[in-house]
Amino acid sequence: MQRILDLGCGKRKVPGSFGVDAMKLEGVDLVWDLNKPLPKKLYNKFDTVHHHCVLDHIGNPMQFLEECYKCLKKNGKMEFVIDNADYWRFHHDFGNYHAKVWERDAPKNPELHHKMMFQLRHLVKMLNVVGFEVVKTEYIRDYKSLRRGHFDYLMTKRRGCNLMKIEAKKI
To answer: Tens digit of pLDDT for each residue in 46-64?
Structure first.
């Protein structure tokens, strides 16, 4: 049976996974500050580590990726989705568009706000440094409506997709 670790799972934990989040929510198995090293009891226990839009909220992303690596069994995989720093809308208002969204939606929780954003090539380099082999990368949109993103479809995927999906293997 596949063992999945879902980091920053929130209310949308991957079914059947072990969920870790900073807040005690329904489905969360372990309340933990992901800015800190994970408990050693999680090391070498999982076939897959999953996180969705978490890495850009972490103060030390290299440490977080190293912790993901430690939790995987040999040849385990990490799969994650993250905001695409090259997405054109994030550059509106002199780059403040994305920050303002978080300030509006979670004004009393600055620890939830973005710490940094990444381009795909930077993530690939970071993953390689940690010891991962990047297996697959993809630019994706988190919406289906042409009405919301009509300009997005006129651009290259790098500029017109708000998210990136990455799969990497522990080597």
So the answer is: 999 999 999 998 999 999 9
DSSP β-bridge partners for residue 118: 84
Taking 80 as the threshold, does the pLDDT of residue 113 lie above it? no
Degrees, nearest 5: CA angle 138-62-67: 95
> Residue 68: in which H helix or E strand, if any?
helix 61-71
The reported pTM is 0.89
Classified as helix, coil or strand, 63 is: helix
Instruction: Determine the residue type at 34.
Output: L
**Vertex 8, ends 13 and 38: CA angle to 5°?**
120
Encode 69-104 in three state secondary structure. Answer: HHHEEEEEEEEEEEEECCCHHHHHHHHCHHHHHHHH
